[in-house]
Amino acid sequence: MLNIELEEAIKLMNKSIKENGEAEEIELIDASGRVACEDIYAPINNPPFDRSPLDGYALIAKDTKGASKENVKKLKVVDCIFAGGYSEKVLERGQAIRIMTGAKIPKGANCVVRQENTNYGENDVEIYEELSEYDNYCFAGEDIEKGELLIKSGELLTYVHIGILSSMGISNVKVKSKLKIALLVTGDEVGISGYPLMEGKIYDSNLNLINSRLREFGLRTVISEIIEDDGEKVGKRIDEIIDKVDLVITTGGVSVGEKDILHDALPRIGAKRVFWKVNLKPGTPAMYSLYKDKPILSLSGNPFAALTTFELLARPVLAKLTGDKNLSPKKVEGIMEDEFNKPSMRRRFIRAYFNSGKVKFKGNKHSSGVLSSMIECNCLIDVPKGTKKLSKGDKIDIFLL
């Protein structure tokens, strides 16, 4: 398909790929940012026993009836329990057991008096308040009940999930295998950072730009390299790596110039082109192909165009492959605080800064080859085709970065 809308491009990509179904078991400490591939249920109660929420004395509520500083109730202290310990005694009327925060409440006790409302007695303790059953009393399973669903399959694990699973005594968890991504940057004109810049060349930014963005999403490439503008060599390299990866992303070589070699490279190996050219600016020449049922997303070589189409096209692919919906582009409404007087003959995406519902520009450089004005920008304004200008106060749609 040629010259299609962004939404149609996303539908075609989603239809052509399946979520990565491979799983692996890893240590819990390494699971943050990974996607669970099974439902996880609580194997125990948390807390696993009735416990005290404070330092005080475990006792029987009836023994405190009418207690006050003017009407002191005195109980015999028969034991002391620290956190991590327990008492084998069964509490009887007229008795109390000294207890610390988090310790298991002894049998027979049905409440805890805080130590501030006592005389801190060691052999006998004076009680200065009346309590009801289960005052200052934490029940087993109060936080989590045994059998409760903790994690749903497909859920992205965060540090909070890790803490909860750890409190259940779980040390390993099954997660989806990490996505294997290849990134190929094409172009005879690009030089490599760290080496002298040759005449007529520019340093490449796309390799590190996209690699860094992937890392922000918790993803990493397994193959990442710059390759010259040679259709035969690019095709051969894709053929060599396709069985080792789940996704190939390329930048450069997708327009209509003599050196736009993806149009030669992909047919050489028998890749099927699904679409070419998306009705947006920058990044119109974006192309999507399938080879051995593996997706190949080819983006423009201009830095801002590559970044824009990565955000709009690659993120939906990554979300589908990983099963992590958080990777999908996020679209919200905003109000313009600046003006943009250039007419948009086609759907256009402009870098901007979004805060508290307001959208403004950080600088005035909007060329697809300019990357520096992306500093401090955190959104892309979605400007519909045919828009003559954007004025202050206009309601607009934006994609958050």
TrEMBL record:
Do you know which SMART domains this protein is assigned to?
MoCF_biosynth
| Domain of life of the source | Bacteria
Q: Which UniProt keywords apply?
A: Magnesium, Metal-binding, Molybdenum, Molybdenum cofactor biosynthesis, Transferase
State the needed cofactors, names only. Mg(2+)
Instruction: Please name the SUPFAM superfamilies in this protein's record.
Output: MoeA C-terminal domain-like, MoeA N-terminal region -like, Molybdenum cofactor biosynthesis proteins
Can the keyword Nucleus be found in this entry's annotation?
no
Which stretch is the leader sequence?
Answer: none
Q: Write out the catalysed reaction.
A: adenylyl-molybdopterin + molybdate = Mo-molybdopterin + AMP + H(+)
The metabolic or biological pathway listed in the UniProt record of this protein is:
Cofactor biosynthesis; molybdopterin biosynthesis
What Enzyme Commission number(s) appear in the record?
2.10.1.1
Q: Which intervals hold domain MoaB/Mog?
A: 182-320
> A Pfam family in this protein?
MoCF_biosynth
Role played: Catalyzes the insertion of molybdate into adenylated molybdopterin with the concomitant release of AMP.
Q: In which family does this protein belong, per the annotation?
A: Belongs to the MoeA family.
Query: Would you tell me the protein name for this molecule?
Result: Molybdopterin molybdenumtransferase
